[in-house]
Amino acid sequence: MVNIGVDPKLLEPLVPRGTELDTWEGRHYVSVVGFRFLRTRVLGIPIPFHENFDELNLRFYVRRTVDGDVRRGVVFVREVVPKWAIAAVARWVYGENYISLPMRSDVRLDGGAGAAGYAEYSWRLRGEWGRLRASCNGPSQPLVPGSEAEFITEHYWGYARQRDGSTVEYQVEHPPWRVWTATDHTFSADTRSLYGEAFGEALAVPATSVFIAEGSPIVVRRGVRLRDA
After folding, report:
1. What CATH number should be reported for the domain holding residue 127?
2. Using CA atoms, how far apart are residues 56 and 71, in angstroms rounded to an integer?
3. Where in the sequence is the domain holding 196, given as residue range(s)?
4. CB under 8 Å to 32, separation ≥6 — which residues?
């Protein structure tokens, strides 16, 4: 999870109706996130040859207040997966901006005391391989309440703006993730081709922080179109 502080003016045109930008200590973040889906099921059913796959996404953070309860969520600028069928289903069910590119990954996280580990994700765009990699040492740590790592990882709602301007909200369920603070990282990509000129420029600056999260079993609920959006 490579996190970069950005000008909110970059994000404001993309904020789904019914939500507002969320901040940590007054800072607006985008995150480039690589991860693996394992043993995936759709409506409880495993789909042959589509259970295990990588994803790369660029996201930012919003919130929505419902009856006094603040729902902290994410908005995806673009999501990359290696199989076109996965991208097509995600666009259809959630209205998310998925594309399909060749991908590969190498993740080795032992988590033992003093042990070194890393997570690496790569994707091919226009004949060139992009790369996202982070390394860490020692065991993962629980999230510190109120910390930057908690803000980045603890979001349990997703929001997607639809073509007609409405908003789809969906709930994401998982236990709190333990994290490593990366000892070093690499993010090498044609970001302008992948995300557009404005985001390409914003992602060219040094990262504010980099984490590796353990992950966990996760449930993504079916989306609901907001009545007030």
Report:
1. 2.40.400.10
2. 24
3. 2-225
4. 1, 2, 4, 56, 57, 58, 132, 187, 203
Helix (H) or strand (E) holding 194: helix 191-195
Q: Which residues contact 89 (CB under 8 A, 6 or more apart)?
A: 42
The whole model's pTM is what?
A: 0.88
Residue type (1 letter), 145:
P
Q: Which residue's structure tokens are 């607006």? A: 28
Spatial separation of the C-alpha atoms in residues 220 and 139, rounded to whole Å: 28
Q: Which residues pair with 145 in a beta bridge?
A: none
74, 104, 118 from 154: Cα distances, Å: 10, 26, 22
Instruction: Say if CB 174 and CB 218 are below 8 A apart.
Output: yes
- Among residues 93, 95, 223, the alpha carbon closest in space to that of 169 is found at 223
Can you tell me the distance from the alpha carbon of 226 to that of 121, in angstroms, rounded to the nearest whole number?
Answer: 34
Strand order in the sheet with 128-137: 103-108, 116-125, 128-137, 184-188
The per-residue pLDDT for range 143-176, each reduced to its tens digit, is 999 999 999 999 999 999 988 889 999 999 888 9
Q: Please tell me the total count of domains within the chain.
A: 1
Bridge partners of 128, per DSSP, are: 125
